[in-house]
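agent> fetching stored inputs for the zinc ion docking request
agent> found them:
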Amino acid sequence: MHESNTFIKKTTPVENFMNPHYGDFIQGKDIVEHFKGGNHELSGSIDELEKQDVEFLPKMCAIATPSGTVEKEAFNQIVDKLVNEINSDECDGLIVNLHGATVSEEYLDADGEVLLRLRKKLGKDFPIVCTLDKHANISTKMFKNADVLIVFRTCPHLDTYDRGVEAAKIIIEIIKKNINPTGTFIAPPMMINMTKQNTFEEPVNQIIKRMNEISDDDSVISASFALGFQFADVPELGSSFLVYTDNNADLSRTKCESVAEFAWENRHKYNLNALEVSEAVEIAKKSTEYPVILNDVGDNTGGGSSADSTFLLHEIIKQDVSNYCTVFFDPESVEKCAQKGIGQKVKLFVGGKVDDKHGDPVEIEGVVKNITDGIWEDSEIRHGGYTKYNQGKTALIETDKRGSIILTTLRQPPQSIGQITHIGIDPKEKQLITTRGVILPRPAYDPFAAKTVLVNTKGTTTADLKNLNFKNIEREIYPINDAEFNIKVNDV
Ligand SMILES: [Zn+2]
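agent> prediction call returned; pasting tokens
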């Protein structure tokens, strides 16, 4: 699983797919040990298969934090191993969890290539059910090489466990020959802006409402809506819809068309919505209720960005805000703090080191308040369903303005409040907290927030599609172009 941001120059090597705890891919029984009891789709599938007393063979798990395009060798090493290890004579069906917005140096549609290779190895009649992230850019190649594609229903992704259960239930029914999934896939030429992708809010919740009505219909096996991932420059960029019925192609098509057309008709409602940096910091500074959470949209770590953008901290210092908390990926500064030790004064340049898109480093002075191993667990249901976190050695510096600056050794998206609480920050006591994301941080931070503000920062995950230089989209797509919608339906 990998969400590949093709606008980042640095490529993603195979090491990034290895779990820091195991020092390798997670394999065999370790997969059960790692995910059982969690909220991941694997956790859901494991529980359902055990509940139905179905024997299963956990094979391998290679997950990397979102980042740049996957290196050719990494992709082939992982997929060759996966394909080699799965044999049709030792099992009756396959559940595979992919992201759907993976790009390798060789394949713009890397997920489609994974499914094609599995299909070729296992044969056309072998049941394959595949789960996908809600940010999938779904291709015809993916659609044609799986019996059923199941996409997370919510953003933030809180239903990962349920989709894993759904995948297990469906594969069992296919194996028993109780159902014959027949699907329709429609990808209208439109992209829903990342700042409008919260499925619990207007206007996207209106699409979700219609999707839920379709899913609730007894004649429907599975119905999915993918938001799309705007930072992958690929031909299939955009939102898409899937409806599977039990061998009723007309019904699949009618239902899929109805919701795709609804989304298309409302496309103007899904455009960019975020405040400028100075305005956002001013709101946070003046607020009598706190904390105000500023979500740094341009440095969306969960979308592959650097996790060290400095635009917000520069503005916080410029506006002389006190009592704030911010997190930077900055291994070099962590080491300097560790060398000095807890209680010692440090003077450092933090952030702005990964590339030239995220602002200049910020000079700070403060006291090293704490140093941790950066490991914690969070049993609450969080974006992506993860419960175990590891951001490497972590340092907390406090400035004389009661600015708490947390420095990490590994890039960790902010889906768990543990990122700041494990090192001693009480979010309720801060005036301003920054996070690096759009919707991903909300389940963790919203319970503490007086207000959450999306900030239109520059960076590799800039919210404005017009700032991105797309080269590989082979069709006109709204809002980049004034596209037209000619329904292109694919049935299987
Ligand atoms: Zn996602």
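agent> quick read of the result: Residues 133-135, 157 surround zinc ion (CB under 6 Å).
agent> awaiting further instructions
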